[in-house]
Amino acid sequence: MNPLISIVVPVYNVSKYLRKCLDSILAQAYTNWECILVDDGSTDDSGQICEDFNKIDRRFRVLHKSNQGVSAARNTGIKESTGEWLYFCDADDEMLSDGLRTLVHLTNHGEDIVFGGYVECNEEGNPIASPRISVQMKLTKDETIIELYQPSYSHYEGYLWCKLFKTEVIKKNDLFFKEDIYFNEDRLFIMEYLLHAKDQIIYTSTPVYRYYRHPHSTYWRLKEQWDHRFITDLRANILMYDLVIKMTRNKLVSLFAQKEIRLSMKAIQRVLDKNEKDNQTINDELVRAERYKISFRNRVLLFFIRNSKRLKKLKHVIISRSSLLIA
To answer: Per-residue pLDDT tens for 59-87?
Structure first.
């Protein structure tokens, strides 16, 4: 089995990092891929670098468009893709040379999505975090949703770039990134995808990607300054909660989604307070989100699950029994 993989790379003013990213794609041990480079109106040399790689290897396809944001760029890549599977790569990171082969090897099981691991690095390339142990397993949707909210082996499982998505599922169900959501749009897309995917998911902790924590990124700058778009993190989490209650009757799973709404509210309020912002519209949204308040009993249960030394084993046991445990 040698399916064509469509790699979608949104590109915007990343000339400092882009060549290393594209070199890492060229270095893939798995060679049956096309790479769709979507230049989202870059004003630096990024567009020209894309054209240079198209001349080096015709598997790189370049699309130039006006600036509309990363979600619009990814949506353009989805529409132009021709592969059986879709892979998303950020232009300021790198793929590990065996990354695609690791993921493709797991597509023989008939599932619609494959999760892989990743290494998190600082800007100098020194590892900050990586999976501590090596595991490979099948997950149900309930277990997968929990991993998206409370990962067992990585810092965060909502990233796009350590996963393979079946193109047929995306195009058949018109799944696209919401272009008015600027934070958590990746995990929201994954959650929407899961709504239409088969119940079993393949997971491996084997790293397939090198993620760089760049201090210039909007997310990390939020710790210092307010960005009005950050309110869309809360909107994304509410949309995800609505998707979760469509996918499962498991009350513990929906409770994790509810908890994430509360965490988002706290993060937004913290940044607002730090920057002494008094935005009535945002405050009104925070008040409306209060309806997702979690009872004390359920907060205690979540705390126990999150902090148990036996979390990885305990979590999956409780998921299957939680409908009986939680009122």
So the answer is: 999 999 999 999 999 999 999 999 999 99
